[in-house]
Amino acid sequence: MPDTAAESAPDKAPAQSVRLNASCGFPHGERAPESICLKDVTLARGGRVVLSQISLAIPQGSFVGVLGANGAGKTTLFHALLGLEPAVQGALFINGQPVRRGNRAVGYMPQMRKLVGGQFTGWSMVASALHGQRWGLPWYSRAGRAAVDAALAAVDAQELAQRPVSALSGGERQRLLLAQTLLDDPSVLLLDEPLASLDPARMRETVERIHTLARTRKMTVLMSAHDINPLLGMMDHVLYLARGRALLGAVDEVITTKALTALYGAPVDVVRAGGRVFVVAEGGGSALQEHDCGGCGAHA
Amino acid sequence: MLDYDFMRTAFLAAFLVALVCGPVGWFLVLRGQTFASHALSHVGFAGATGALMLGLSPFTGLAGGALTAGVLMGLAGERVAGRDVMIGLVLSVAMGVGALFLHLLTRSASAATALLFGDILGISPGMLGWLALLSAGCLLGLGLMARPLLFATLQPEMADAKGVRLQALDVLFLALVALATAECAQITGVLLVFTLMVAPAATVLRLGLSPLAGLAAAAGLALAEAWGGLSLSWYTDCPTSFWIALLGGAGFLLVGLVQRLKA
Predict the structure, then answer these.
(1) Which of A116, A249, B101, B166 could form a disulfide with A254 if both were Cys (CB 3.0 to 4.6 A apart)?
(2) Do B153 and A180 touch (CB under 8 A)?
(3) Residue B151 and residue A128: Cβ atoms within 8 Å?
(4) Residue B117: partners with Cβ closer than 8 Å, 6 or more residues away
(5) pLDDT in tens, A162-203
(6) What confidence tens digit (pLDDT) does each residue in B122-134 have?
(7) Strands A36-45 and A89-94: what pairing?
(8) A133 and B145 in contact by Cβ < 8 A?
(9) How close B263 gets to chain A, by Cα (Å)?
(10) Which residues of B touch A (CB under 8 A)?
(11) Per-domain residue ranges for chain A?
């Protein structure tokens, strides 16, 4: 397991496939359309511009860590990609199509919040998301039940199926959520802070699980996080959001003193120690990637 | 006791109402909206007394008042900050208005008691027809929206992303609750809607059944408690509402106790 970005595996997508001057067009020659493409996108939340004039293209099958402080626009970006919040300006595309709400190709795992229906079994909880947008009774056909079983198996959660959700740990509930996102067999996964409130061992385990799933199912994954370290060695790209701007590239290109100083417009140091990476502001010495503060960044 | 027409009517009415109250209550409890349903019944009380004043049937006023309040509550949605306070305010204003209307009415005492505590033995065959129609409509509506409602209740953000219209669903559901409340008030009265709507549902939810089984069990338990209350009131001469309330509370405690002992 490589423990620094510099040693990341050679099979990762090459950095030059990331083009910040995205055309969001359609096949250039023999290339398939990008999985996610943004063109001059400006996003606002509550009337405040959060990201301005972002253009980027993320190739298919890429594993992207989305980093930035609370309020930098991680969740806002996800909401825009889900078609929940229209862009103030610009256009967003997924698999070459303009984003739209209810797109089954996009799986979304929201931040964990207060548990509702904890008395249900894990199986019932996962099944509630199966074609949950359709009218009718929550009745599942044989094929539907098989799909739920398969989603549970994909995250090694078969043993959680018969237990009440309220009796599960945070990490176990997280696996159920992940199983729910897999029900529609998405090609793009948006995971909002899946590592929040997990202990370090669980963090690493979760990232590895998601990474493996993404590889075998050829999914593009955008995963937001407060801290880059649990993601090191797994990411093909980093998408760093700060001050309304975005920087996309390989870890070694983005997480550098020079790149982040330019992005923040203020002196920022990237310190590597003990195989880990720290992004530190000048003077204060406090990490710019804030630590989880239990829900205060629910809409960050 | 089934030799009497009014008892047969009462049992039939209880059947029609319990079948709706159980499953609607199941979702109410799951969604944490029980206080809202309590408020709806109180707005219904103001509507019923207002209707009496205008010479209309109190049931029309009850259903109309609750329905209006339910739809407005759904439209206001999450923006109504500090929902408990807002709902409490609406509830008390509605009760106050109801008290004023009653004061202005001459035959207030008996009408007030029937509205507040129910009068299941006074249900007319004509009303039975209305209850049947409403129950059929409510069950059909709930059957249609159960799946997205469950998804939206358990995972609102995910449901939103998958194209479930959360607010439309909330409005529809609260409208359904309002109609179920109006039905329920015919049996238990405005003040005791909780007994048939919330108690059986909350008891069933403790059991950890699958959603579909839970919905069916809530209907079954509501029916058992309504019929049980009716029978007990026949033999003891105590009000039906009293027995339904007592059975509801006892059932809830019993399930809790059994689970505590098993754990």
Answers:
(1) A249
(2) no
(3) yes
(4) B188, B189, B191, B192, B239, B241
(5) 999 999 988 899 899 999 999 999 999 999 999 887 888 888
(6) 888 888 999 999 9
(7) antiparallel
(8) no
(9) 13
(10) 30-32, 143-148, 150-155, 157-164, 205-208, 210-212
(11) 1-105+186-300, 117-185
The CATH number fitting domain B5-194, selected from 1.10.3470.10, 3.40.109.10, 3.30.70.100, 3.40.190.150: 1.10.3470.10
Instruction: Determine the 3-state secondary structure of B175 from DSSP.
Output: helix
A268-273 vs A245-249, strand pairing mode: unpaired
CB burial of residue A292 (10 Å; 0-12, 13-18, 19+): middle
> Tokens 């339904």 map to which residue?
B244
Chain position carrying tokens 């982040």: A260
According to DSSP H, which parts of A55-182 are helical? Answer: 74-81, 122-127, 142-154, 170-182
Q: Specify the pTM.
A: 0.88
SS3 A270: strand
Return the structure tokens found at B51.
């209707």
Q: What is the CA radius of gyration of chain B?
A: 18
Best interface-test mutation with B: which of A137, A140, A177, A224 has the largest number of B CBs within 10 A?
Answer: A137
Is the domain spanning A1-105+186-300 CATH 2.40.128.600? The answer is no
ipTM of the complex in this document = 0.87
DSSP state of A101: T
